[in-house]
Amino acid sequence: MGSACCGRNYEGNERMLLKRKRGSSEDISTLLSPPPELTKNYIGLPNRFEHQGSASICVGLAGIENLGNTCYISSALQCILNTQPLIDYFLAGVHEDEINPKFSGELTRSFVELAKAQWLSEYESIVPRYLINLVWETAAQFEAGKQNDCHEFLSYFLDQIHEELNRVARPGTPSVIENNGEKDERQAAKAWHEYLSYNCSVIVDLFQGQLKSTLKCSECGFISATFDVFMYLSVPIAKKSCTLEDCLLEFTKEEILDGPEKWFCPCCNQKCKATKKFDLWKLPPVLIIHLKRFKYNKCEISKLESFVKYPTANLNLTKYILSNQKEPPNYDLFGTINHSGTNQNGHYTATCKNKHDQKWYHYDDEKTKRVNLEETVTRNAYVLFYFKNSIDQFFTQSSRLPEYWPHILSKDITVNNTENDEQRSSGLATDFPNQTAELGSFNTIDNPFDNNI
Ligand SMILES: [Zn+2]
């Protein structure tokens, strides 16, 4: 640990060290707007990305000290710390009622400590040493002192938080819902139901959407379509200089599988030439887009330095989505993770819009500085964070509440409630009795679907 961390300007304990901002008052609690009232059976998390707080305090601006090649951790954490509905959820303390009994909840709790330091006090910088040690100790891929991929860490971190907060008491693996001639939207809803039967958490509510993946046999024309859940879109970089839209078009472009990549067609019962295509089906409230800058070729990693131009407001994704959306898929940028330098010797930073004062800041380890809107679009952008600006609240996703799913279904469509579902439902009922009592009027046999098809 660097000497700066042990200086006398720091307060705190072995879990976290804190350096108070010069001139900051001891108690700013009266100046802070309280988090929205949320309890564990919340129906929606309010969209307050554009809600402004008191001008006389500056919160959310603490840097995170580098503990030796930890910029990939701090940059990802800064973007998560600026994800307003998630932070409201944590500051309201809902996680304490939702930690899955299978887990200790250590990672979640240490992140909440960091979130409280960031948003309830005016600190200049923070050393979240317990949290970082926990990552080093529990995830072998993030060895102490080594450089790592920030997107890999982000994905690991959100997965872990999801596991710790999974409302399903007995998580398992959802089965693949095969297409059997049904309408796509119905098949997608079934796949979502199947997924939610094993995965329900604030992470699912906010960050997860659905992709359609289609394989078509070039010999017999057989089509296999499945609906997969995604937490981020990993898009290829289209050309040397391009736009985010070009990258999304590239992502949804049909790919030919031939030679060693041939697909085993269940209809021809042999390996056949085929086409493969991804389509966006349902987009989540918080959309994470990963620009595939790093190319992995056997033992070499190379970096694409291309400038990708992306909008900071009103990214409209209608033309890239195959299905109708309940609300317009309009997104505003609120964070970027940036990578400068080479793949061998690089550095990560984050640029985020502060939910308290609505201004943009650049986080570079322990240093934070104000930046203009124009400075948020750079050739270093690696991961982009957008929020949906067309909705007032982000609804909870539960297998029992299909009316809050992103799917548009007619009333006569019901999601099959198999015996297995009933067993799982009763498992949920035992583990979450309050939730079941409150949500009892909706069950999966008679769903109050919208009548829009
Ligand atoms: Zn075939």
From TrEMBL:
Family membership: Belongs to the peptidase C19 family.
Reactions it catalyzes: Thiol-dependent hydrolysis of ester, thioester, amide, peptide and isopeptide bonds formed by the C-terminal Gly of ubiquitin (a 76-residue protein attached to proteins as an intracellular targeting signal)
GO molecular function, one term: cysteine-type deubiquitinase activity
PANTHER family xrefs: UBIQUITIN CARBOXYL-TERMINAL HYDROLASE
EC number: 3.4.19.12
Species per Swiss-Prot/TrEMBL record: Blepharisma stoltei
Annotated GO biological process: protein deubiquitination; proteolysis
EC category: hydrolase
Protein name, entry field: Ubiquitin carboxyl-terminal hydrolase
